[in-house]
Amino acid sequence: MSNGLSIDDCDFSMRAPLGFIILSHTQLEPLKRLTRALNRAYNDPPIAIHHDFSQSRIDIGRLPGDIRFVNPSLITRWGDISLVHATLAALRELYDHYDPEWFTILSTADYPTMPARQVISELQKNEFDAYLDYVPVERFPANVEIIRLGRPQPEWQRNAYDRYVAKTIKLPSAISWPARNRPQIVIRSSFLLAPFVPYSRIWKCYAGDFWFTANRTVAKILLSDIAPVKKTLRHLRKRFAADETFHHTVLANHTALRICTDNKRYTKWLLRARNPKVLEITDLPDILHSKCHFARKFSGDSNSTVLDELDRLLDHQ
Hints:
By secondary structure, the chain is of the alpha/beta class. The chain has helices at 28-42, 82-97, 116-125, 153-164, 190-193, 216-222, 227-235, 246-252, 284-289, 305-315; strands spanning 18-24, 47-51, 67-69, 102-107, 110-112, 130-131, 135-136, 147-148, 151-152, 167-170, 184-187, 206-207, 213-215, 259-260, 265-266, 294-296. Strand 15 (265-266), helix 9 (284-289) and strand 16 (294-296) form a beta-alpha-beta unit.
């Protein structure tokens, strides 16, 4: 039986058309299932993994294919700048050793949902450099009536402004308050913030969903050592969810880049939920109808019915 996802007979150059970065911190089985699916679909593509061994010890010898690991790995935490550094380390590993035309960033909660031939054809035929969900982070956003990552967009943008741009100052108190309850002021004025932030009229703050796909040009920009990139990294080192703004800010400020704001990821957000819904077999029709390249978030259960069905459907396309 032929595998409908195989790209053996496509006319590609010797350089791999698409490589993968995987961020992992859980047990081996979800990572093994994802890498097997990618190897089957993309004919053993370049894969670079950052696995946080401090959270879960795994036997990397049980993983299939030619996979490179970031070594030593970083200690990562959810919503922390360490996720940005882990991503950049894996990106460097991928391009130092493989140099693919394109790369995409996945977690072990992601899974392919479109045949590889179609994915690569779309990347190569379109004129975009990146598929990245982003919007400007503004103190006074326009009243756009859509839901973004589980929140109405204006509310989401205002929260992002406080998270990434505004400065909170804890005030001294004569009473011994717990740290989280100490009196504080929040500076939101762009004039007063100017000495404390890297943002300006020519280097604006952007944010959005973390997961994205981009080409080699974008990889070089993200790995560059230019001053705005370094300043943005320093500024975000103690900001929550830095992974949802760093790449967006660096790339959206490069106006020569052609960026599609559809990141080709299917997710299902319930209103005001902190995380996307875990996808089940009942979500499969919407997943396939979306024409997205990947979907998230899936359960880490190795016996997942929806992943079994995705394998069956894609293997026969």
